[in-house]
Amino acid sequence: LEFILKMQCKFLSAPTVSTNQETAKSEICIDNKTGVVFPWQRYRLPENIEPTGYHLHLHPNFTHQNFTGHVSINITIVESAEFVALHTRENKITSVTLTPINEKGKSDKASKILYCLNTEMMAIYFERKLKAWDHYTLSIHFTGNLTFSLGGFYLSKYKNEKGKETVIGTTQFEPTDARGAFPCFDEPAFKANFSLSMVRDKHLHTLFNTPLLSTKPHLGNLEMDEFQPTVKMSTYLVAFIVSDFVKISNTTSTGVEVSVYASSDKLNQLEYALHFSCEVLSYFEDLFKIPFPLPKMDLVAVLDFAAGAMENWGLVTYRETALLFDPLTSSVKDKQWVALVIAHELSHQWFGNLVTMEWWNDLWLNEGFASFMEFSGVNAVEPGWAFMSEFPLRHELRAFSADSSNFTHPISVNVSNSKEINEIFDNISYDKGACIISMLVDLLGDVFFQGVNKYLDTYKFSNAVNADLIQKVTIAARSSHSNIDIQAMMKTWTTLPGFPLVDVTLNEKKVSLLQSRFIYPSSNNQLSCSSVWQIPLSYVTSVDPMRPKKLLMEGKSTSFQLPQNVKWIKFNHNQTGYYKVNYDMTMWSNLIDAVLTHPETFSVSDRSSLIEDAFSAARLGKLPYNEAFRLAGYISRETMYAPIVTLINELGYVEEILKIQLEEDSRSLIHRFVQLLFKDLYTELAWKNGTSFNRNQQKLQTVVTSLMSKYQPCIHEALNRFNMWRNPNIPIQPDDLPIVFHAASVHGPLDDWKHLWDTFVNSTDPNLKVKIIATISQTTNLDKILFLQSEFLKGENIRSQVFLHVSTLVSGLTSNLVGGPVTWRFIRQRWEEITKIHSVASFSMRSIVKNCLGLITDQGEILAAKDFFKNKGIVDMKYVQQALEKSAINAQWSKSHLPQVKVWLRDNEKNSK
Ligand SMILES: [Zn+2]
Question: Which SUPFAM superfamilies does the UniProt entry name for this protein (predicted)?
């Protein structure tokens, strides 16, 4: 089954490609030119000088790929200072002057400037003494280069509808790249007002965080745009774009002008984003009880973009697939993705932009909150989607996967250099953060948002630490939840790595609970198991299945008495808690019987959670796989998306290992098992015109059809539709595109593959392009694989700047046993070349390594891979360690479970005949 659902990247606001980021902690910083010791040896700026306002002037030249600039920064000396220290990277500083604000005219030139490459700082000295409470304007002229690096002020290319190549300039500053565009105090706590003037070609225009004030003619064919000053904000939220993009606009009920921008050929794909963002912006204004403080909100689709999107205040940038929606070719899931990303970024406008974390160690709160608010926002604007039951699929699954590793980290973590800051834009900050917020919301209800409102109002246009939020929430919850020490409870979730497994046993009416850290067995587990979480537990029983009971588990073990005998107990009601549950054998057996006979007794989320917990228990060796498979049998009666996808993921893992272990017979048995489970649903949904289906059915249609990708009648129908699409050009339903393209790529004649490649090259639809890469890369034809590898290196058609192109390609190439080993060899052989294009810290590289190592379970190969990464000097990087560990876990799984699973599959085949 190539059906492990490929999730899109969830790193919504993480940039990645930066240079000069390595900072050795013990190294003493010395100015390279003079050999003088840099006067400030810490990573964070001194606090004796505060910037209050910036005026930035930029004049980029896209042809020569460089820019000249000038920044005037108003500063206040808080404590007397010998030098002014601020951030700069790679720009050439051409002159620096200092002018007292109240004695105009008496400017001082800098007497000396020292640089520290490690911390990307400059220290500027003047003859004059900088005394406390003096106010100055620091004026810096500089020049810099524009590259295609996806960080700082950078260039992006695209072909317009006439095939003409157009270059635009855009920015991505979070977390530490503003300093690459202009010298600044580049830390979130140094908030200031920013204004901008930008010189540009006449045929282009400029966007900034604020509305345009004026445009004046400049030299020759140039014009200069001036912008209103911003509200007080952090440097990482500043953004500007020079482009020829077009827009559509609307005004919200509270008078905010919302515009969505893209290149002119994509004008027809902006409608949904505009509708959704107007609605969700109003929803957040209501929920947070603070009006959106800017007069306009621009959303811009940028082709070359490292993250999913970036919440720059009033000027949010998106990768194209996160904003564009074409009803003719985009699927239900594409639309959902657009809604999620917009809701995420717009919630940041309050939580993150209005109130900002003091320092990056609190990133999880910023990102966890936005990742939680995505669902709340989508649910409010699209209530018909019944979307909340998918929260665990999007966040919990990924959080559990990252957090069950030895190499995870607590969500609250100290970061003290750019590399460490970049590293925490990960599943822990985003997905675990979201799960913990969700658990707190479930515990406290509306009271949580009362605390949030108070927090936003108290710290608006300023900074706060996590404890400030917890304090506001605690005060709000004082009367309704006086028995819970929220601070103590949250501390266990934010400072401990990993998450708990709760083992439940039932003896008559006595329920006993024991918690321990959840970890998959591998050959080199090295965990201390002393962690104890304060877990807000919930459960329902066979006697009262509709009314959940709650209790807080504070110690390692606890027990309580039920008022009467029950047939079953189900813990973690509606999957809102960030923990897994295992039951004793009798309890499991009763629960599975109950699901098989009356699945409707359990909520949709509880059915998902039972599947997940049963297969997790099986992987831990606490439940025989037979029992987990027995539970899976109920799925032929399931009609809801979340439990079905949960099961597909679990079976997908087993199938993946069978594939790697070359157990082809067993593999075809598990395919048969799946086909049998889903045959009825397939007959009901597949290949039908989905317009009369409800949303759940529409989503299932895609899933169930792709599940049948090895089912002969399905392949036959898919190829049939592909041919009709080629000639006489009968459109394929958007939701059927993946399966039809898959069949053509893998089972069709080579000419079909070629036709898809040509369609890919000529299309300007970003969603369609990704769908084609996902399928043509699954080919088992060696020539085609080699062709795709060479395209990967060229980086033109399959664009090296587009993360989804790279990650989707590698994921496809490593999805089968022909492409996998060839690709892993290719990555090793061309490592130097590849890491020149994709830095070792980039998301692309993380995805490449993860996919390649996913294919290995042989002990010798694991050791060889480890040696390889050691040689390349990156064996200590977290994602490499995690990938190696995953291989070891898979190897251990094969040893422990493979024989048992093979027997079950054989028996099941006999019984089903
Ligand atoms: Zn975010």
Answer: Leukotriene A4 hydrolase N-terminal domain, Metalloproteases ('zincins'), catalytic domain
Number of domains in the chain: 3
The answer to whether position 138 is within a domain reads yes
Least Cα distance to 54 among 177, 144, 170, 184 occurs for 184
CA of 367 to the centre of ligand 1 (A): 5
**Sheet strand arrangement including 510-517:** 557-561, 510-517, 500-507, 580-583
Q: Is residue 875 part of a domain?
A: no
* Same domain? 280 vs 166: yes
Return the CATH number at 468. 1.10.390.10
Dist. CA 370–CA 430, nearest whole Å? 8
- 149 with 291, same domain: the answer is yes
User: What's the gap in Å between 248 CA and the centre of ligand 1?
Assistant: 24
Q: Mind listing the pLDDT tens digit for each residue in 233-251?
A: 999 999 999 999 999 999 9
Query: Would residue 345 show up in a list of annotated catalytic residues for this protein?
Result: yes
Distance 793 CA to ligand 1 centre (A): 30
Query: Which domain, by its residues, includes 397?
Result: 355-495
Same-domain pairing of 184 and 268: yes
Residues tagged in the binding site annotation for Zn(2+): 344, 348, 367
Residue 659 falls within a domain, yes or no? no
Provide the annotated binding site.
Answer: 344, 348, 367
The catalytic residue among 120, 174, 279, 345 is 345
Contacts of 237 (CB under 8 A, 6+ apart): 173, 174, 209, 311, 312, 313, 353
Q: Which residues surround ligand 1, an ion (CB under 5 A)?
A: 12-13, 367, 370
Domain boundary pick from 328, 348, 368: 348
Co-location of 547 and 470 in the same domain: no
Q: What is the pLDDT of residues 477-532, one digit of tens each?
A: 999 998 899 999 999 999 999 999 999 999 999 999 999 999 988 766 555 567 89
The gap from C-alpha 82 to its chain's centroid, in whole angstroms, comes to: 43
Q: Which of 604, 666, 601 is nearest to 629 (CA)?
A: 666
Residue 696 is predicted with a pLDDT of 86
Q: Is residue 880 part of a domain?
A: no
Distance 325 CA to ligand 1 centre (A): 21
Domain boundary, last residue among 587, 607, 627: 607
68 and 200 co-located in one domain: yes
Give the pLDDT band (50/70/90) at residue 288.
very high
- The answer on 318 and 229 residing in a single domain is yes
Mean confidence (pLDDT) of the chain: 91
Q: Where are the alpha helices (DSSP H) in 165-318?
A: 178-181, 271-288
Question: Cα Rg for the chain, rounded, in angstroms?
Answer: 28
Identity of residue 593: D
